Amino acid sequence: MDGFWCEYRWVLAQMRAPELADRLQLRSLAVTGLLVCRDGIVLGRRNPNSLYLPGFWQGVPAGSVEARSDKDPIDLRAQLLAELGEEIGLTDAVTLTGPLLACEHDTTHIVDLGFRIDTDLPFEAIRDAWQKKANDEYDQLECHSLDRIDLISPQVLPTTRAMLERLAQ
Fold first, then answer.
1. pLDDT, tens only, 149-161
2. Nearest Cα to 126, choosing from 96, 97, 89?
3. Which residue ranges does the record assign to the Nudix hydrolase domain (predicted)?
């Protein structure tokens, strides 16, 4: 995969005005996790103030790939673990698998790389960590039984929906 760093304001402009995609030709890279705990799959509802699809459910964590240091190569797993700490408050006790898939969002042209994240923790411990330490990326967390993922809200981000479908196979 090849790419280049650009100013985030270019990505933001394309998110706010999708018609700029033909001119800017940006495919912003992001990582998304599907956190599977002892009790099921953890989803977060995007903050109502989010720029992109507020109120939609998504796998946790998620975030744009960014340079943590100009000299370091991109480490997608480290990026995802950093997002997990920032958004959910978990920093260990997890195993990452993937990326399992890549999914391009229709209007923003963000390319999400989807990873599975497994933990033996119960959902209650994850929710407690989120409430104590995490940022406000999500206004709610839910846990869904693995055998009932067909009942998850239709308001789910594309990458999360694709990962859920893959998990159901």
1. 777 878 898 899 9
2. 89
3. 26-169
Token pair in block for residue 52: 């992109």
Rounded Cα distance, 143 and 133, in Å: 19
Strands 111-118, 95-104: pairing is antiparallel
Counted domains in the chain: 1
Question: Would residue 8 count as lying in a domain?
Answer: no
The pLDDT tens digits for 77-103 are: 999 999 999 999 998 899 999 999 999
- How many Cβ atoms sit within 10 Å of the Cβ of residue 101? 15
pTM of the model: 0.89
Residue 21, in any domain of the structure: no
Return the sign of the alpha-carbon dihedral for residues 101, 1, 77, 83.
negative
Tell me whether residue 164 is in a domain.
Answer: yes
Q: What is the CATH number for 87?
A: 3.90.79.10
Domain that residue 81 falls in? 28-168
- R_g (Cα) of the chain, nearest Å: 16
